[in-house]
Amino acid sequence: MRLNNLRDLCNYLGADYSEPGSPCRNGFRPDGGWEPDAKPGEHPATPVEATALSVRSLARRIYKDTAAGCPVRWDAEDQTIIVYPYCEGSDGLDYHEGHAVTLPCDSERIGAALEAAETDSHAEWNSTHGCEKCWDGQTVCDEWGNEAGPEDYGMRPVDPECKSCQGGIVI
């Protein structure tokens, strides 16, 4: 499937697309927050507000549909979506450049970006979230040479052969 614009991307991923001029939800502001005294449906969405509403829905859909809850950024000027990997409890992905896809493109490219972000997220989880019994409770080193003992939950790699967590611990 060919995705040519934000509308196509939202429709493909099951997010709500907002048209400019459509009623803006109660007090929505594109820069964030809400206007408490605004009445619902009385303000027609400007193009910027409609884009912000669409991107917000798209980001929520991707967050909910990815196991890691991957965040996204939309660059309206370049018509580019960037999907970032995420790992709860780790700072290891804070400077990840993300997986960018510029529209127009085929839907397979979006799927590949989502899958790559999930793969990176999973790899970060496995390198930082072993249980206290992983590696038979011994102190181990991560890929950067940092030592992690059994008491260092959230800082030690997962042992795929661990008899306690079966190599897949969950917080």
Report what the structure shows:
This protein folds into two domains: 2-128, no CATH class; 129-171, no CATH class. Helix content is 29%, strand content 12%. The chain is built from three helices and seven strands, in the order βααββββαββ. Strands 2-3-4 form a three-stranded antiparallel beta sheet, covered by helices on one side. The chain has a two-stranded antiparallel sheet with strand order 1-5. Strands 6-7 form a two-stranded antiparallel sheet. The longest helix is centred in the last third of the chain and has 22 residues, at 107-128.
What's the gyration radius in Å? 20 Å
* Total number of domains: 2
Oligomer: single chain
**Percent in helix:** 25-40%
Q: What is the approximate shape?
A: elongated
Number of helices: 3
Cα(first) to Cα(last) distance is: 37 Å
Largest sheet: 3 strands, antiparallel
Q: Largest beta sheet: what is the strand line-up?
A: 2-3-4
String of helices and strands: EHHEEEEHEE
Summarize the structure.
The chain is α+β, with helices and mostly antiparallel strands. Helix content is 29%, strand content 12%.
Structural descriptors:
171 residues; alpha+beta; 2 domains; 3-stranded antiparallel sheet; two-stranded antiparallel ribbon; 7 strands
Which helices and strands appear, and what pairs or packs with what?
Blueprint lengths: L1 E2 L2 H8 L33 H19 L6 E4 L4 E4 L15 E4 L2 E2 H22 L11 E2 L5 E2 L23
Antiparallel strand pairs: 1-5, 2-3, 3-4, 6-7
Helix pairs in contact: 1-2
